[in-house]
Write a structure and sequence with these properties.
Number of strands: 9
Strand content: 25-35%
CATH class of the largest domain: Mainly Beta
Number of domains: 3
Low-confidence stretches: 78-84, 96-101, 103-112
Oligomer: single chain
CATH topology of the largest domain: Immunoglobulin-like
Helix content: 25-40%
Structural class: alpha+beta
Strand order of the largest sheet: 6-3-2-1-9
Number of helices: 6
Length: 223
């Protein structure tokens, strides 16, 4: 594989930073990063671009019953032990806690609705929106606010190969949004490699196709 190809190097660096480059391919590229200044610069560039996305991840509080299970696992409700016997009990409690957290993590991972698609729409090196496609909706997180002109809207489009653009809905200038995905849109999404954002009249395109200038495009990644 020719790692001196700039486009290939940029794509591998992006996948490496996002975490979708796995297995032997990741191990090979990691060796390239340690020996190639150009590869390190590509990785650092993507790390800098994607770092603000961490602010878009909402905090998740564990349900109340989790603490009850933790207390039960570590024996917090049992009577205190005395003397040297407390250390084996404490060690056993910590081991049980680790096992419990591991089990909770795995069970939560199995229940979480995983995103099937992801895209980052950027203006030069500044990320504007993080898009995550699920089975019923496209979740939009605004990373960098971009005020919408009073007479306009930002409209998001799928650009399927060999077919006309299909609207996914309007993007917010600030905050978050959820754009519904029906079966028809999901079918088009499966054939789409690129998304676009156009500037449309307030409320969206009156024709069902882009009428204003295309402001941004972004690759759509499948997870």
């Amino acid at each position: 594989m020719r790692y001196d190809n700039p486009q290939l190097l940029d794509a591998l660096a992006r996948e490496y930073v996002v975490g979708t480059l796995r297995g032997r391919a990741r191990a090979r590229f990691k060796r390239v990063v340690t020996s190639s200044l150009r590869a390190r610069r590509a990785v650092l560039g993507w790390e800098k671009q994607l770092a603000p996305l961490a602010r878009a991840v909402p905090a998740a509080a564990p349900p109340p019953q989790v603490w009850t299970r933790i207390e039960t696992a570590i024996g917090a409700r049992a009577r205190p032990m005395r003397g040297a016997g407390i250390w084996p009990a404490l060690a056993a409690g910590l081991a049980a806690l680790a096992v419990l957290f591991g089990g909770l993590y795995l069970s939560q991972e199995q229940r979480v609705d995983r995103a099937r698609y992801v895209a980052v729409i950027s203006e030069q090196a500044t990320p504007l929106w993080l898009l995550q496609g699920f089975t019923e909706e496209l979740r939009v997180n605004t990373i960098t606010e971009r005020p919408i002109p009073a007479a306009n809207s930002y409209e998001l489009w799928m650009l399927p190969d060999g077919a006309a653009p299909v609207s996914l809905g309007l993007l917010p200038g600030t905050g978050n949004a959820a754009l519904p995905l029906d079966a028809q849109r999901l079918a088009v999404l499966a054939q789409t490699m690129t998304l676009a954002v156009s500037l449309e009249p307030a409320g969206g395109s009156p024709t069902g196709l882009p009428t204003g200038p295309v402001l941004f495009t972004a690759p759509l990644r499948r997870i």
